[in-house]
Design goal:
Blueprint lengths: L13 H22 L3 H23 L4 H43 L13 H31 L11 H4 L9 H8 L1 H32 L7 H8 L1 H4 L2 H15 L5 H24 L5 H8 L4 H30 L2 H6 L7 H10 L5 H30 L6
Length: 396
C-alpha cells in the first residue's frame, strides 16, 4: 500500500458521502452479480458492503486508522474474490479493494476538493469529476477489445476464447505457438514482406508530396487554396470503399491494377492527407521572416528549404510520415481492390484468416501490430512536444 497522503479539507457529513460510496459499491456489484447469475443481488450486496465499510472507516475508526483500514479492505476483497472466482477473482478483488479503500477516505474527508479552487460550486465540482469519469469510460470502451486480444494471443489452444486453464493462470494454458506459427509460416512471412516493401515507399511518396503541398498551400497568395486543400484531404473524408472502387476502375484503364506500383501509389494517396495536416499545423507558428532573411543573404529556395524551413517543421513532417506509414501498413480495403495475390499484405492475410480459416495466429499478429502502433504513436507524441518547444508554445 502506498503511503497515505493526508490532504483533508474537512470531514463531510455522512448524508453526503455514504450514498456516494454505496453507489460506487453497487456499480462493482453489477459485474459480480451478473457473473454469478443475479445482477440485482450483486447491486444490493455491493452497495451494502461498501457502505458498511465506509461507515466503519469514517465514523467509527476515523483517520488515525486509515492505513490499517485500507489494508484490511484490500485483504477482505482479495479473500472474497478468491472464494468467488479463484486466483483471477482474487486479483480483481485486490484491485477493487485498493480502489474502495482509497475512495472511501477521498470522499469522506473531502479530499476531492484539495486540488480545486475553493470558489467552485457543488455543480461545477460534480461536472469536473463527471467529465473525467465519462472520458475514462469511453477510453475503457475503446481499449477493452485490444486488452482482450493480447492475452488471447498466448492461448495454448486453437480457440478465440479464454480456456479454463487461462482463467486459473495455469502455465499449461499459455503458449507462444501462435507466434511461432507466424514467424515460421511462409504465407505470413510473405505477407509481412509485402507490407514492409510497400509501406516505406508509399510513406516516402506521401511525405514528399504532402510536405510540398502543405508549404505551397500555407502561402496566402495561392489562388483557390481552400478548394485545393479540400481535394487533397478528401481521401480522409470520402468512405474508403468508394475511394478503393474509384482507384480500381482508374488503375484498370492505365494498366496499374494488380501491380506493385499501383498499390504503392494508392497507399501514398491515402497517406498524403495526414502529412498535409500535420505539416500545416507545424507551419502555423513558423516565422516567415526567417525565409526572407535567408533570401536576403543569397540563399536559393532549395537551400532555404533544407537549411531553414525543414529543421523547424521536421517534427511535423516525421509525425505525418508515421501516420502515413501506419495507414499503409494497416490498410486492407484498397489493396483488395487494387492489388493482386502477389501483393497480399499482412492485413489482407489477416482478413483471409478470418474469412477462410479461423486461425488464432491472427491474434498474435494483431498483438505485434498493436505493439508497433504504440511505439509509433509514442514517437509522434515526443515529436509533438519537441515541436512545441521549438516554437516556444511550451516550457523547455
Amino acid at each position: 500500500m502506498a503511503e497515505v497522503i493526508l490532504t483533508d479539507t474537512g470531514k463531510k457529513p455522512i448524508s453526503f458521502w455514504l450514498p456516494v460510496v454505496a453507489a460506487a459499491g453497487a456499480f462493482a456489484g453489477i459485474f459480480v452479480g451478473t457473473a454469478n447469475g443475479s445482477t440485482l443481488a450483486g447491486v444490493l450486496g455491493g452497495a451494502i458492503l461498501v457502505g458498511l465499510l465506509g461507515f466503519l472507516a469514517i465514523e467509527m475508526l476515523g483517520r488515525p486508522m486509515e492505513k490499517t483500514v485500507r489494508w484490511a479492505i484490500v485483504a477482505l476483497f482479495v479473500v472474497g474474490g478468491f472464494l468467488l472466482g479463484g486466483i483471477p477473482g482474487a486479483v480483481v478483488g485486490g484491485l477493487f479493494g485498493w480502489f474502495y479503500g482509497w475512495f472511501i477516505y477521498w470522499i469522506g474527508y473531502n479530499r476531492y476538493r484539495a486540488k480545486l479552487v475553493p470558489y467552485l460550486t457543488p455543480g461545477q465540482v460534480l461536472w469536473h469529476y463527471a467529465f473525467r469519469v465519462i472520458c475514462g469510460a469511453i477510453f475503457v470502451f475503446l481499449i477493452t477489445p485490444i486488452l482482450v486480444v493480447m492475452p488471447l494471443s498466448f492461448n495454448a489452444e486453437n480457440f478465440f476464447t479464454f480456456t479454463p486453464e487461462m482463467l486459473s493462470f495455469d502455465p499449461a494454458g499459455y503458449s507462444l505457438r501462435h507466434y511461432r506459427d507466424f514467424f515460421y509460416s511462409s504465407d505470413w512471412q510473405q505477407a509481412l514482406w509485402n507490407s514492409v516493401s510497400i509501406a516505406p515507399v508509399a510513406t516516402l511518396l506521401a511525405v514528399s508530396f504532402g510536405t510540398l503541398a502543405a508549404i505551397g498551400l500555407s502561402s496566402e497568395h495561392v489562388p483557390f487554396r481552400r478548394a485545393i486543400m479540400a481535394v487533397l484531404i478528401s481521401p480522409m473524408i470520402v468512405p474508403l470503399i468508394i475511394s478503393a472502387a474509384g482507384m480500381y476502375f482508374f488503375y484498370s484503364r492505365i494498366g496499374l491494377q494488380g501491380t506493385y506500383v499501383g498499390v504503392v501509389l494508392a497507399h501514398a494517396a491515402l497517406g498524403i492527407p495526414f502529412v498535409i495536416i500535420t505539416v500545416t499545423a507545424t507551419l502555423v507558428g513558423f516565422d516567415r521572416s526567417l525565409t526572407r532573411a535567408s533570401a536576403n543573404l543569397g540563399a536559393g529556395p532549395v537551400r532555404t528549404f533544407f537549411k531553414v524551413q525543414m529543421p523547424l517543421i521536421l517534427p511535423g513532417v516525421i509525425s505525418g510520415g508515421l501516420f502515413a506509414f501506419i495507414t499503409s501498413f494497416d490498410e486492407v480495403v484498397v489493396v483488395l481492390f487494387v492489388g493482386s495475390a502477389g501483393q497480399k499484405t499482412l492485413p489482407w492475410q489477416m482478413f483471409i484468416g478470418l474469412r477462410e480459416q479461423i486461425s488464432p495466429t491472427i491474434l498474435a499478429v494483431a498483438t505485434i501490430l498493436v505493439a508497433i502502433s504504440i511505439c509509433l504513436l509514442t514517437t509522434v507524441e515526443l515529436l509533438r512536444r519537441r515541436s512545441e518547444r521549438l516554437r516556444g508554445m511550451s516550457p523547455g
